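By convention, the C-alpha cell line describes the chain's fold. To illustrate:
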Amino acid sequence: MSNQVFPWARFAGFSLALMGVGYGLMKATTPTEQQLYDEMAPDLRRRVDLARATREAREAEMRRQVDAQVAADKAPAPTPIWAEPPARK
C-alpha cells in the first residue's frame, strides 16, 4: 500500500517544483507597466494617455453619481402605505 502512496507524493513534489520554476520564469521575464510604457512609440503613448484620461473622467463621473445616490439614500424615507393605520369611514 505504501508503494502506491509514494509515487503520488513524488508526483506532487515534482508538480509543485515545476510550477515554482514556471512562476519564477514568468516573474523574471514579464515587464512592468512602466517598462512597457517607456518602450512604446510616441504615438502609442499619446493614445494610451488619451485612453487613461477618458477612463479617469468616466470613473470620476461614476463616483459623482454614486455619491449623489448615497446622499439621496440617506434622506428620510417616506412611510410606506402598509405602515399607516387603516382609514375609518
Residues 31 and 37 are 10 Å apart (CA to CA). The chain has a mean pLDDT of 89. DSSP finds three helices and no strands in the chain. Residues 31-73 form one domain.
